[in-house]
Amino acid sequence: MTVTPLITEEQIQDRLSQLGRRIEEDYTGRPLMIVAVLTGSLVALADLIRRIQIPHRVGLVQASSYRGATTRNTTLVLNESFAPDVVGRDVLLLDDILDTGQTLAALAEHLRDRGASRVRTAVLLRKIGRQVVPIEPDYIGFTIPDVFVVGYGLDYNDDYRHLPYVGVLAE
Ligand code: XMP
Question: Are 82 and 104 in contact, with CB atoms under 8 Å apart?
Answer without folding.
Answer: no
